[in-house]
Amino acid sequence: MARSGQEQEAESTAAFKVLKRAMELDSESRYQQALVCYQEGIDLLMQVLRGTKDVTKKCNLRKQISSYMDRAEIAKKYTDQEKEDGKYHRQIKIEENATGFSYESLFQEYLNETVTEVWIQDPYIRQIHQLYNFLRFCEMLIKRPCKVKTIHLLTSLDEGSGKEQQSSGLQEIKESLKNHGVLLELEYSSSVHDREIRFNNGWMIKIGRGLDYFKKPQSRFSLGYCDFDLRPCHETTVDIFHNKHTKKI
């Protein structure tokens, strides 16, 4: 179905808004974020191009797309060099009660078809809500484009009344992952304190509060109970690094 002039105008406006943000990030040397915005903006412009019949407009759009693709290629080279040098670092500050930080929103940029193995170090995968957080994280990992085959979890053992709950919960998750062809390797340590997640494509994410940065929902039927993009967060900091060779924790 052909798009109306108004729809095309709206798509064009959206595309240039994203591309403007890309150039701002580029000028601030935030190349990885700039690259993501370039790619999104170029995809939007390509949609506008496909729906444009005017020859002159098509020619102008092709020139603009080519120019942004050149900028994106330069940003990619800088990003690749930062990764190669082990200098890449991005920090995200999640404010108190902020929303829009589900695991998918936070991690999707770093997950692709090359991810086959994941290491998670988090001392607090004990209580029911923490077990559910870990389960949701695992659900994200087995979806496309990832091809995860092994997940390593290093956590602390609950020595109190919740020991059986923790053990049985993690065992159930392990069996469920096995049904999807994914191996969960569990390891416990009484001295683990740091929280970090590593993917075998080189990305390493450190979250101040680990996976447990969501607030308790107001009720079982409040927005954010199911969709974690709508769930308010505790204040925390996310640090993202890239290492050429990711080793086991």
UniProtKB/TrEMBL annotation:
SUPFAM superfamilies: MIT domain. Gene3D superfamilies: MITD, C-terminal phospholipase D-like domain (3.30.870.30), Phosphotransferase system, lactose/cellobiose-type IIA subunit (1.20.58.80). Keywords: Cell cycle, Cell division, Endosome, Membrane, Transport. Pfam families: MIT (PF04212), MIT_C (PF16565). One of its GO terms (biological process) is cell division. Coiled coil: none annotated. Residues 8-86 form the MIT domain. The keyword Cell division applies. GO terms for cellular component: late endosome membrane; midbody. Signal peptide: none annotated. It is a peripheral membrane protein. InterPro entries: MIT_dom (IPR007330), MIT_dom_sf (IPR036181), MIT_domain_contain_protein1 (IPR052817), MITD1_C (IPR032341), MITD1_C_sf (IPR038113), MITD1_N (IPR045331). It is found in: Endosome membrane; Late endosome membrane; Midbody. Homodimer. Interacts (via MIT domain) with CHMP1A, CHMP1B, CHMP2A and IST1. This is MIT domain-containing protein 1.
